[in-house]
């Protein structure tokens, strides 16, 4: 603030908050219940594709999705964006990547965080694996994040 | 497989820093002095309180600033019967549009009175917080109280609803 006129302008914090609880429906409800057990489910559509997370309706035919199948907890990053300054309540409190991860056995990619530590370690096509939260309650945060797969080497 | 999840917590929280701007900042600062600051539009001549820099109807600047009386008339009101988080008033209570004397648009504030006696045309006066408790907010007026005067006739405020 330079001029005296501007320094008289008042400002104040303002918080808008809604403490929603959402009904998730039967399909996502099963997806979340499986996450609690450390498993990831996808929905089988009429054309045989596996959609992860499962949608309640087939995106091609609009028919209800009823068959859920287990997919892998590892997959491939199809695209990503680096979050250099994480915000409060985001999955990680250190720089990380938002990424679309196509899990093994899935035909679609899901959005989640990748704890790569450094943007230089991120690349499209890299393999990542889910790190599950130690305490799980049946929501998307039961996957704490994904992390780069260590391949044949032991994790450091 | 365990039972499907029925519900998840999904809070939404947005944290803003709101700037009051120059005109409203001066209005808010005047409240700490126990004054209501208004302004007259240079085009339509209407008096706005809170003070603003530009008339919302004419887009013309204010030509005159003035201290507005802390007495006025209830133009419309509602009786609040529903509890909500952060509520400070005992239910039921009265929340009203108060046309301050000399102003052309009402402000919103609490009226401390039995809810069943609330009515249009009621004459009210501000009860200010003690000077040391005043802040740059309309809460520096604790509430309005009925003055006991005769109600204002509808014609006196029908153009200001």
User: In angstroms, what separates the terminal alpha carbons of chain B?
Assistant: 61 Å
Strands ordered across the widest β-sheet of chain B: 8-7-6-9-10
Q: Name the helicity range of chain A.
A: 10-25%
Query: What is the general shape of chain B?
Result: globular
Q: Identify the overall geometry of chain A.
A: globular
Radius of gyration of chain A, in angstroms, nearest whole number: 20 Å
Instruction: Supply the helix-strand structural class of chain A.
Output: mainly beta
Strand percentage of chain B = 35-45%
Q: Spans of chain A with pLDDT under 50 lasting ≥5 residues?
A: 1-6, 152-156
Please trace the helix and strand order of chain B, writing H or E for each element. EEHEEEEEEEE
Oligomer: heterodimer
Figure out the total of helices of chain A.
2
Structural class of chain B: mainly beta
Largest interface between protein chains, with number of residues from each side: A-B, 31 and 28 residues
Low-confidence stretches of chain B: none
- Which bin fits the share of residues in helices of chain B? under 10%
> Domains counted in the coordinates of chain B: how many?
1
- Overall mean pLDDT score of chain B? 95
> How many β-strand stretches of chain B?
10
Rg over C-alpha atoms of chain B, rounded to the nearest angstrom = 19 Å
Tell me the layout of helices and strands.
The complex is a heterodimer of chains A (156) and B (161).
Chain A: H1 4-7, E1 11-18, E2 21-23, H2 25-36, E3 40-44, E4 50-51, E5 68-71, E6 74-83, E7 96-103, E8 109-114, E9 127-132, E10 143-148
Antiparallel strand pairs in A: 3-4, 3-5, 6-7, 6-9, 7-8, 9-10
Chain B: E1 7-9, E2 12-19, H1 21-31, E3 36-41, E4 47-48, E5 62-68, E6 71-80, E7 93-100, E8 107-111, E9 123-128, E10 141-146
Antiparallel strand pairs in B: 3-4, 3-5, 6-7, 6-9, 7-8, 9-10
């Amino acid at each position: 603030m330079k001029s005296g006129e501007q320094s008289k302008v008042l400002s104040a914090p303002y918080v808008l908050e809604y403490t929603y609880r959402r009904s998730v429906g039967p399909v996502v409800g099963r997806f979340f219940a499986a996450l609690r057990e450390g498993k990831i489910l996808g929905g089988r559509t009429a054309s045989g594709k596996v959609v992860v997370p499962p949608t309640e309706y087939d995106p091609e035919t609009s028919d209800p999705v009823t068959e859920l199948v287990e997919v892998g907890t590892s997959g491939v990053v199809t695209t990503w964006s680096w979050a250099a300054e994480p915000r409060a309540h985001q999955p990680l409190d250190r720089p990380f990547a938002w990424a679309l991860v196509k899990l093994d056995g899935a035909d679609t990619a899901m959005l989640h965080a990748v704890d790569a530590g450094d943007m230089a370690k991120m690349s499209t096509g890299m393999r990542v694996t889910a790190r599950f939260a130690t305490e799980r309650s049946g929501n998307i945060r039961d996957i704490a994040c994904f992390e780069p797969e260590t391949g044949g080497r032991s994790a450091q | 497989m365990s039972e499907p999840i029925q519900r998840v917590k999904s809070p939404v929280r947005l944290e803003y820093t709101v700037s009051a701007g120059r005109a409203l900042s001066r209005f808010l600062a005047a409240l700490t002095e126990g004054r209501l600051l208004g302004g007259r539009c240079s085009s339509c001549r209407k008096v706005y309180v809170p003070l603003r820099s530009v008339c919302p109807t004419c887009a013309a600047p204010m030509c005159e600033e003035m201290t507005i009386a802390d007495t006025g008339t209830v133009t419309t009101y509602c009786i609040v019967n529903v509890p909500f988080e952060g509520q400070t008033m005992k239910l039921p209570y009265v929340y009203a549009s108060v046309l301050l004397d000399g102003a052309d648009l009402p402000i919103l504030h609490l009226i401390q009175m039995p809810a069943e006696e609330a009515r249009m045309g009621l004459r009210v006066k501000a009860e200010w917080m003690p000077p040391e408790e005043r802040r740059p907010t309309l809460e520096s007026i604790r509430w309005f109280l009925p003055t006991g005067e005769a109600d204002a006739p509808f014609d006196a405020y029908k153009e200001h609803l």
